[in-house]
Amino acid sequence: MYISLIIYFCVFTQNTGDVNNYQNILLLSVDTLRADHLSCYGYEYPTSPNIDKLAEKGIVFDNCIAEVPLTCPSFSSMFTSKFPRTIGVTRNGLGISEDDISITELLKDNGYFTFCVQSNWTLKAKLSGLKKGFDIYDDDFHVKRWGIFSSERIADEVTQKCIDIIKKLPKDKPFFGWVHYSDPHAPYHFRKRYNVHHEEKGRNNERRYKTVKSYDSEIRFTDEQIGILLKHIPENTAIIFVADHGESLYEHNYLGHGRKLYQNEVRIPLIIVSPKVKSGRTGMPVRGIDIGPTILGIANIQKCKSMLGMDVLNENINKERIRVIETYGGAVPKIPILRSLMKKSGPIMQAVIVENWKLIVKDNRKELYNIIEDPEEINNIAKKYPEKVLELHNIIKRWSIHTPVNTKKDGRKLSDEDLEVLRSMGYLE
Ligand SMILES: [Zn+2]
């Protein structure tokens, strides 16, 4: 009742009730996909011919960052348009509460048929709470592979599930669909048929070479499945293509995501294709919390006042926009009371990006980078520019004070299966 009232008061729709005025919307996401490993973002290998075609038709955002390099917290921010700490979803294994309004609920309330095809265990309805507002939330993948529960559903099954749903969609409603692929998530399997590295370049670092080769083959495989899926998507559909976070591929001595805030983990692709949008590229500074309001904007639904992001297609975003991000680490303890207590512990790392400048703070260590001149964040120039460090650090401190941490209890019970999978993914302490 309470939620319905909130939805009633915060929604103003310009839709007239005529089905022809509505537009289908597809949120197409790929887990652990670095922007710079897609050809349309300048990658030297042909990993993404089908995503590139989307890029040619839409707007490519060159400067989009995830709120946090973790799956469930990142998507929870997109769907609620709030920061992970604001909704208390700072780690995988924690989920959004009934009080937090998801854009899916608003879309459904405004006449959309809503469906989701899921592929990552941490996004299962019971764990993430993201099912709110979905008519169909297909997260049924209890398959055991190699003796353990598979933490992900493979791309060809995701595509087929989605095609099956599309064939049976109600004819009298537009749809909002969320289709999530997870194949580039570790462990990466080398898919020989999808190998894009046909030369010896990079072999001087054999460990990294093998990892990148496998990771890229998973991207190419996913891209092919996306190409198959897109053939079944009706023409009058706006497509938002995005990733939840990137991946560190041994840069900064780290393989994975969740524990650091370098660009390889937080810079994500964002491509929007819509009949209302002219194709092109933009360097506008955008972020995860903008995804929700942008989707609402495409549907002509006004965002809630509590939503913190911007509609990137209709609002003016300053190039000096301040973007503070943080990470709390990957793992969640299995005991509910410890999970609730953990919500009170602070982030392990914070960062702020303002134009070309990026400051990363961990304990007393500060790293300053010019991410345009040094996109790989190799040269820490903190000592050279102490005043800039002070200015940016003060921004982080102010943001932290004015953005309270949600410490509501998380009573969610993790099943034995959940624990097994989270442990296998490295998300259990
Ligand atoms: Zn993820």
Would you write up a description of this structure?
The chain has an eight-stranded mixed sheet, with helices on both faces. Strands 15-16-17-18 form a four-stranded antiparallel sheet, covered by helices on one side. Strands 3-14 form a two-stranded parallel ribbon. The two termini are 37 Å apart. Residues 1-20 have low confidence and may be disordered. The protein is globular. 29% of the residues lie in helices and 17% in strands. It is built from 13 helices and 18 strands. The protein is of the alpha/beta class and 429 residues long. The site of zinc ion has 6 residues, from loops.
Distance between the termini: 37 Å
User: If strands are numbered along the chain, what order do they take across the biggest sheet?
Assistant: 5-4-8-1-9-12-2-13
Shape: globular
Strand content: 15-25%
Q: What class do helices, strands and sheet pairing give?
A: alpha/beta
Lay out the secondary structure.
Layout: H1 2-10, E1 24-30, H2 49-57, E2 59-61, E3 64-65, H3 71-80, H4 84-87, H5 103-109, E4 113-117, H6 125-128, E5 136-138, E6 144-145, E7 148-149, H7 155-167, E8 175-181, H8 206-230, E9 237-243, E10 248-249, E11 255-256, H9 263-266, E12 270-273, E13 280-282, E14 286-287, H10 291-298, E15 322-327, H11 336-342, E16 349-354, E17 357-362, E18 365-370, H12 386-402, H13 416-424
Parallel strand pairs: 1-8, 1-9, 2-13, 3-14, 4-5, 4-8
Antiparallel strand pairs: 2-12, 6-7, 9-12, 10-11, 15-16, 16-17, 17-18
The structure holds zinc ion.
The site of zinc ion has 6 residues, from loops.
